[in-house]
């Protein structure tokens, strides 16, 4: 347990940071800019932190822009209101994501632009050898913890979350963020803010606020709301690793 719990927490939050900071706020919305060195650094960090569940910044950006344009309508790629359960929504999202990734479906021009792309990391991250290799690494870590560190056998049930970390985060945000909680804004959709649980999702569950101001770097909008990723963004701005994208108003579509 001394090894597994810290490892799970680190994997959870490092993967979640990559998803909210690099895939969501940078790739999909371009809320800030960075030079090519840092773009490649965070691109590779996304691959390492998501491991077996690596998500392409290009496919993620297109998918997410579609979500904003068609929020909670039949064209929304992952609205919980057109799926019987969270697993059906995840499967539907997977099919649309793979179609975008493999260019097997028509993509509207307004969605398909201005995102980071690395042919090398894309090929590596989506290769079956890489995905299986990361999965084996997670299993080996748990076996070592079980054999040498007196880990309880029940912790093996955490392994599927490691395997599917990226999609798990997406499912929580898209299901809970459009079904449960309160609304600060009338966005003509069913987006919600899930205040109590948002510390687990680093700001991503302020979906109602985000759909109102999709390019605001701070997903919180009330005094009692706190977006844990925003201070990290402010620190990176102070360190001059990123710069706010002042050319994009906070209420621009994406």
UniProtKB/TrEMBL annotation:
Statement: the UniProt record of this protein carries the keyword Nucleus: no
One function term, GO molecular function aspect: oxidoreductase activity
Bilayer topology annotation: Multi-pass membrane protein
Subcellular compartments: Membrane
EC number: 1.14.19.-
InterPro entries for the chain: Acyl-CoA_DS, FA_desaturase_dom
Keyword Nucleotide-binding: no
Fatty acid desaturase domain residues: 13-232
Keywords assigned: Fatty acid biosynthesis, Fatty acid metabolism, Iron, Lipid biosynthesis, Lipid metabolism, Membrane, Oxidoreductase, Transmembrane, Transmembrane helix
Membrane-spanning ranges: 6-26, 128-149, 155-175
Family, per entry: Belongs to the fatty acid desaturase type 2 family.
PANTHER family in alphabetical order: ACYL-COA DESATURASE, DESATURASE 1, ISOFORM A-RELATED
Protein name: Acyl-CoA desaturase
């Amino acid at each position: 347990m001394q090894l597994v719990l810290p490892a799970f927490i680190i994997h959870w939050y490092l993967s979640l940071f990559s998803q909210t900071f690099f895939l969501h706020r940078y790739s999909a919305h371009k809320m800030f800019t960075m030079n090519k060195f840092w773009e490649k650094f965070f691109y590779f960090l996304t691959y390492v932190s998501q491991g077996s569940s690596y998500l392409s910044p290009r496919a993620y950006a297109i998918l997410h822009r579609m979500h904003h344009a068609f929020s909670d309508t039949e064209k929304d790629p992952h609205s919980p209101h057109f799926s019987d359960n969270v697993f059906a929504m995840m499967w539907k999202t997977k099919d649309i994501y793979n179609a975008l990734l493999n260019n097997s479906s028509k993509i509207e021009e307004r969605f398909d632009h201005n995102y980071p792309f690395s042919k090398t990391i894309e090929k590596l991250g989506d290769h079956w050898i890489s995905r299986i290799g990361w999965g084996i690494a997670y299993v080996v870590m748990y076996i070592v913890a079980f054999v040498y560190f007196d880990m309880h056998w029940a912790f093996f049930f955490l392994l599927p979350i490691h395997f599917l970390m990226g999609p798990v985060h997406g499912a929580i945000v898209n299901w809970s963020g459009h079904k449960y909680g309160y609304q600060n804004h009338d966005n003509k959709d069913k987006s919600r803010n899930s205040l109590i649980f948002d510390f687990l999702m680093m700001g991503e569950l302020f979906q109602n606020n985000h759909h109102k101001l999709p390019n605001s770097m701070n997903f919180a909008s009330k005094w009692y709301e706190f977006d844990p990723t925003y201070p990290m963004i402010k620190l990176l701005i102070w360190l001059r690793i990123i710069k706010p994208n002042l050319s994009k108003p906070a209420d621009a579509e994406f």
